[in-house]
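Annotated sample (chain length 347).
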Amino acid sequence: MRQVASSYLENFKSYFDTDSLPVEKWSENIANCASEQALLKLLALQADNCKPHDEAWAESYWGRDFRSKGSLDTSRWSAGSSYNGNIDRASTYREFSASALDQYLDCPFAYMAGRVWNTEPWQVKTAEVEPTTRGDLFHNTVAKFLARYQQKNLNNFKQEVLQQQLADDFNSIYAKFMSQGKIIDSSFAAYEKDDMLQALENWLHMEREYQAQEEFELLPYAFEQAFGRNVEGSWPALQLEVNDEIIKFSGQIDRIDFDGTRYMITDYKTGGYPTGTALKAGQALQLPLYVLALEQNMETTGENILGAGYYSFKEGKRKNGTWQTAVKEKCLGCIDPGHRKCQRFCL
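Output written by the structure step:
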């Protein structure tokens, strides 16, 4: 080696000599995992070679089936993989879910990941009830409870009897979800259970108040009414002509009220709901599609559909929606007639 002027440079140059730096190969193995997260990542990458007890542990920790998802990071690089942006842009798919369209308008990427790729986010099971499970709890409980009172006014029954029935329905569905692993038994879950039951009791109180104020005597008529779905009792899909093509829409209407002539739709929300501005701008399509599906399948006219709105379990009252002008002016169902804005019909 030729000498250089500086010993520092001499030392630095030695790093570039052949075999001056030994090459060490390192591969991931369980012995190198210093955390649960590192172990989970390794098991996901080696999903096809997992031992049964390792796989069971990973699934119980995640609360998701990781076997197929664990290979996505490598399969996305295979030729023609749909996970690498190779989407057929000439798709002939012409059937859409009403709620999925709202998801697309809110976040196109979330729509692509959940509805096109059919993937779900990986997340650790926690003591807190997941939002989707929470929504199912409320929807199923209300539907089961109201099925006893189809076309009946709740004010004709004793409040304590109604409260007990509602609590029994909620507890049975809650226990079922726990047995299915959707809810983790914990001290926090017990607290959250009491909070959810209180929200349902508030709903029952408001429901009796609304029915007492109904000018058109609208009463519960149908619950969880599906259309365009492969389930018992489903209506046919809603068909609309868009750009000279027939597009089919599917969905599930939480609740339909009926007074013998006129209809009203309610969509229950445990989280957020579209604003009046979004509805006016056409950025929330779920309720308008529900109205059209009702008109098509009940063989009625738009004049007999008073409108559709949301009930917020979080706020404990009816909110926003799309309504006939005459109904809005009468403030149908407004608990406080003196209030400038009826909580049910203002967009």
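Annotation: DSSP finds twelve helices and seven strands in the chain.
Annotation: The beta strands are 95-97, 219-227, 238-242, 245-258, 263-269, 305-312, 317-323.
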